[in-house]
Design goal:
The chain is 65% helix and 0% strand. By secondary structure, it is mostly helical. It has one domain.
Length: 82
């Protein structure tokens, strides 16, 4: 796909979803972050019990923290300043 075709596809998409003018769409960062944290807590809690019927409090916390980080990095990228 050449540059003209790519730009045309973007304009068709913008029209189809109802965007007006030259405005850009922007994610509701707070909502996306909240969703990632909630999903991470749920997944991490389940993960802590996956291979252990009675995990320690520390194991549960660790599993939740890892899952939250994974979820956040699924939705956000680091700003390298470039």
């Amino acid at each position: 796909m050449n540059e003209v075709e790519r730009v045309n596809r973007i304009w068709v998409l913008r029209r189809d979803i109802g965007l007006k003018g030259n405005g850009m769409i922007k994610a509701k960062t707070h909502k996306v972050l909240e969703m990632a944290i909630e999903n991470g807590i749920k997944y991490g809690y389940r993960r802590a019990y996956k291979h252990d019927d009675d995990p320690s409090e520390e194991a549960i916390k660790q599993a939740i923290m890892e899952a939250i980080k994974t979820e956040i990095y699924e939705w956000f990228v680091e700003d390298t300043g470039l």
